[in-house]
Amino acid sequence: MESIGVHMLLCAARRRCSYLVSSLGSGRDDEDLVVPTSGGRYDVHLKKRQRVAVYWDEEVSEVRRCTWFYKGDKDNKYIPYSETFSEELEEAYMVAVTLDEWKKKLESPSREIIILHNPKLMVHYHPAAASDDWGSTPTEQGRPRTVKRGVENIAAEIPNGEPLQIDHLVFVVHGIGPACDIRFRSIVQCVNDFRNVSLGMLQAHFRRAQEQQQIGRVEFLPVNWHSSLHSTGVDVDLERITLPSINRLRHFINDTILDVFFYNSSTYCQTIVDTVASEMNRLYQLFLQRNPLFTGGVSIAGHSLGSLILFDLLTNQKAGPEEDERSPGGSRTTPSSGGAEEVKEILQKLELSEYCDVFEKERMDPQALFLCTERNLKEMGIPLGPRMKILHYISSKTEMQDQNAAAPGTASPSQRDPDGTGDGRDCQYRDVGLGQVSANYPQLNYKPTIFFAFGSPIGMFLTVRGVKRIDPNYSLPTCKGFFNIFHPFDPVAYRIEPMIVPDLEFEPMLLPHHKGRKRMHLELKEGLTRMSVDLKNNLLGSLRVAWQSFTRGPLPAVEAPAADAEAESDTSAEKQPDTKPEEPPVAKEETPPPINVGRLNGGNRIDYVLQEKPIESFNEYLFALQGHLCYWESEDTVLLVLKEIYQTQGITPDQPLPGSQ
């Protein structure tokens, strides 16, 4: 329970009360006595009476040892007095009890009067209001406040605390700007909401596993890169060139929208990826220091631009040696003599044999050649004309790779991978003139289990960079799980699966509602759509039969009965094709064929769409912004994250969710 920005030490966790009291009352030095609270994310320094955040920067808050409280007639909770004044109240109370002398009056620091009538009746009076300019005083001072000693019988919802066992760790990276939701809250506050929702979902859907002590909880830690980016002095430079008109709008754009352009700048992109990677590595090491018994896995989640940053980091991670050995090209670090010969053949084909010594000196193999940019060639001393020839060759080969990969079942490994590495990773080729900013991507100290993207523009950025299709055989080097979660009205979110299977149109997976069914308005909409389709098919069938009977010639009146029977059989044969084609679509809709979306998520579906709320379905434009910022408090999103995390440990929800894989 928090009040007026103060954390109440004894009321906040009743399980620690006896420990704290004994620690405070002991004769040892309390300066080094630190008590972890809030799941280990905060430390309370008892002697300093301070509450300090462990994993992120936050203003230090005051902690009070609460013994005396007051509550007004309009207050919904008790508010603690300061420790100094509580000691005065306690001293006066003990004197009154010892001497049995009541009606004691004390004056609070704000010059308010507290009267101790008896042990069960103690009141706090407001100060007398001064007369106004007309010389009159208020006739009503309001009812006095109730004063209470001790924490017994205080009707306050004090949480029992979080489970001590941590099964999994998730790092959450924010998107553009310092605010992450419609209420302009920071990433720390939004992740706190996400964590609280996860605790509720665990109790609701994993109760059996909790009762059997198979699971504890999942820890979510925020990763902030915006403050580091804007502490480089770029804000001062922007301020000098910003026009003075519409000042608030321009300041908002400089602080939020420009983050997208910063990430597409080679200078600031390096700052961003360095900050994100180093912060996640720092948090990981600090978490292991504070939780030495932790043996669970680590996953990462990104919102908006944060998901793109994580995707670029993951695509540039180095796989383990055992994974490199599986590729036909063997080790990628040592260029072979055969690779140098291939580069020499390419240069001879381009009539640039005089530069073979330059490329051989730089130990250039085909893979390194296809990663070269114009800047690299210029630094090697290659003149403009030969540079253009080499870049044109690289670009044409890259386009041929995409065309071959786009034809399913026809591209051989050598066609998809002309540089001989055998990697089969088409996403990698966006470095070859396809738009990704050149940066030195740091390596993470762990291999993420799953990558969750919320409201992600990854698909759009890959398309803008020139990646037409993702190879179905491609997977992130160190992360085998990838989920793209989005709201249907999110204007920033884009799909991933159509880039893997471009020739097939199919809907994203509908994320199951956390209560186990579709929202009623969606079921009603589907029912009406199905009914209208059936009515349309029946009407068209009736019109078709009527038109066929109208255009058929008149039958002779004196025709034999055999001819009549033959005509009836012809008529039934004509009607039969009208009814048969209507049945297969219904069967296909009930049992859709499985869709192969490649290895990016281990063969499982990637795109998941949330169910909009009934009020959101009235006007999708009004709720577009809310759709991009809704993930922090979305029970459906949190439940999918928990389900996929615990599925890696062989633990499933109490009741299987409809529509889930």
From TrEMBL:
Bias (Basic and acidic residues): 416-426, 572-591
InterPro entries registered for this protein in UniProt: DDHD_dom, PA-PLA1, SAM, SAM/pointed_sf, WWE_SEC23-DDH2
GO cellular component entries: COPII-coated ER to Golgi transport vesicle
Region Disordered, annotated ranges: 319-342, 401-426, 558-599
Domain DDHD: from-to ranges: 444-647
Record field: compositional bias (Low complexity): 328-339
Molecular function, one GO term: metal ion binding
Family of this protein: Belongs to the PA-PLA1 family.
The name this protein goes by in its record: DDHD domain containing 2
Annotated source species: Columba livia (Rock dove)
Name of the gene this protein is made from: DDHD2
